[in-house]
Amino acid sequence: MAKPPQSRLGRGLGALIASGTPKTKTPATVAPTATGAPPTADGLPGYREVPLHLVEPNPYQPRKEIDPQLLTDLVESIRAEGLLQPIVVRAVGEKFQLIAGERRWRAFQQLKLKAIPARVMVATDASSAALAMIENLQRSDLNPIEESHGYASLIRDFDLTQDAVAQRVGKGRATVANSLRLLSLEAEIQGYVSKGMLSTGHAKVLLGIENSAERLVLARRAVESGLSVRALEEIVQHRRTAKPGQKRRMPATEATALTDIEKRLTSHLGARVALRHSAKRGRIIIEYHGNEDLSRVLERLGVSL
Question: Is the alpha carbon torsion for 40, 46, 47, 50 positive or negative?
Fold first, then answer.
């Protein structure tokens, strides 16, 4: 019987993962399982089929959301072709804890199968958490905020430094440090980033604003107006260079957007519309000619007399 193919996750673990010092004590070595069998199958050390009901999710799983459509696609793929890559687990007491392969495990549950091929590893809590991060990073499964929380968990739960985290997950220290900075943003902005409404480039620009309220205002404007990173940088730069009491010169991108809004309102109402806009307040001015024209405009606005 040929050995199941190893993913990138299964190669070079010695270089990436060192033993950690968890704050909470969880059995980290392979103990006899509920079936009494060691983690071997057909003479292949570490590989076996494990009962599906004995597999538990990884408490340090960085991915918080699973795309239902991707899971459905995986279910159909496994139904048609079988499982191409075993899940990775560690034995914890009488059960097995997932290290990698949560979607594959969930797909097997949906297929109502009794057992799943698995690679059983010896791993500490810290190693298990790091391996889960590595697998998701290699598959690009994490959104930027999930990635940030994953790094933060390794630091918080296992007393690791940023350097140690970077070494474990095979990333540069600067990458880890910049990712962690996202967690200093307001929850609302983090939500925009996690849903792809703002990019990490937008987030980096917003991090340069110290005032929380101002940061939220600009984030909402960037989302509502679809501002590019460059346009947002331009707005922030103008805010920084404006002197106290000096009238702020509107960036070209913002002026263009306001002009477009004026044109659309004018077309919709059949009356000339002007916007008087500033960062904190503004006015919409609608011109009309006589009572009949006013009634027409109000009707367009959905206001009954």
Answer: positive
